[in-house]
Amino acid sequence: MREPVLSLKGISKRYGPVPVLKDVSFDIYAGEVVALLGENGAGKSTLSGIIAGSRSPSEGSMTWLGQPYAPANPAEAIDKGVVLIHQELQLLPELSVAENVFIGRWPMKNGVVDRAQMVRRAQEQLARLNLHIPATRKVAGLSTAHQQLIEIAKALALNARLLILDEPTAALGGAETEALFEQVRKLRAEGVGIIYISHRMEEIRKITDRIIVLRDGEKVQEFADSAIPVRTIVESMVGRSLERMFPSLPEPQPKTMLEVEKLTSAEDAFRDVSFSVKAGEILGIAGLVGAGRTELVRAISGADPVASGSVKLDGEVLALKSPADAIARGIVMVPEDRKEQGLVVAHGIGENLVYANLDRFASRWLTPSAKRAFADKAIAAFGVKGRGEQPASDLSGGNQQKVVIAKWLMRDPKVVVLDEPTRGIDVGARAGIYDIIVNLARRGVAVIVVSSDLEEVLGVSNRILVLAQGNQAGILSREEANDVSVMELATL
């Protein structure tokens, strides 16, 4: 019989009296990819942290290559060959790509950093991921997708024996995801064990060998084969029957709410884009990473400058100089990075909800009771699992996203733009976000959804605008849109 590279026996973790993990046991073998699945709060991150040395178990034990294994910190785990790639990016923006790849492990020559070797080796790792950027450039200004690939390049440079990938494709498009999968297959063939955490069910079936499911801190299911129905996997995660993922869509109203005509980016991110969105319609925007999706919706929302073209709301041409201009006219945007751009995570839920709505309070002074009442109303309306005084950092990804959405929807906007609305959010929480999106359309709001998840953009959209390398490749009706027709346009 094969000996596992990593074995967990009875791993439990408590924070005070609160159990987070309960008696979790499983093995990981060399040359296999094991999916670790569960809703937000199921214990995946805590378990990953224990394996990678950032947390210690309250009970239980681990072995590594048959020997006792209890890393006191991540450095000890890395020395053994165990590397965790976090979902949250941990790059230093003012350092170069190469410096980030080798930070703390600089290649040395004659007592000084061998920068030529560092850049050469970093460029090799980037090439393995089909990321064609200079290793000498700063990380600052790179897209989220490119930063995610740099995080993966860091792990590849460590020659890991066990790699834990936490939502590695959350910010990646189709081409980047395939490049990552190619590397995962190569690492598997080289005998590397991989724990793969993702909320994208189709990629779980595509890249993993077996599946371990956590629910409420316990291992509730282990599937020996990942080629099982998605519904079966999801129902084991949520502990209930899942009748549907995407709600039925309402018919758009006749009135055109938003018109974009020949819009061109001042930074050449997109060119001559034209489309309209009716009241009560959901327009999806699809395309590969670098196609200009985020830049387009940022321009519509007043965050990025345009060189030419126009944006009309209710037939009136807007002169948007800033997001404040767009917000004042009724266009709001939920950004793709909720922690960096959508929330002040160290502040309370109530504060975050109020920050976007200060002008809606009649009084010059915002009293604690008024703030509390406003927060309580928003929390109840959007099903946020938390209290107004709780720091936003305490919430799961799904509840943080609900706070970001709630703070803007409390303004009763005419147009809502959502960029990657379910990035890093579990299957159960996604259903709640989709309900919010569809309910907006039912209220007559014009909705734009940008998503790298093709199943998602197909599931929630009345029509889909496809961008390819900054150009408008086409607009598909719901009847015309499928994974093949969208990808054909996206790769033009």
UniProtKB/TrEMBL annotation:
It holds the Pfam family ABC_tran. It is a peripheral membrane protein. GO terms for molecular function: ATP binding; ATP hydrolysis activity. The keyword Transmembrane helix does not apply. CDD domains: ABC_Carb_Monos_I, ABC_Carb_Monos_II. Keywords: ATP-binding, Cell membrane, Membrane, Nucleotide-binding, Repeat, Sugar transport, Translocase, Transport. One of its GO terms (cellular component) is plasma membrane. Residues 6-241, 255-492 form the ABC transporter domain. It is found in: Cell membrane. Coiled coil: none annotated. Its main location: membrane. Belongs to the ABC transporter superfamily. PANTHER family: CARBOHYDRATE TRANSPORT ATP-BINDING PROTEIN MG119-RELATED, D-ALLOSE IMPORT ATP-BINDING PROTEIN ALSA-RELATED. This is Sugar ABC transporter.
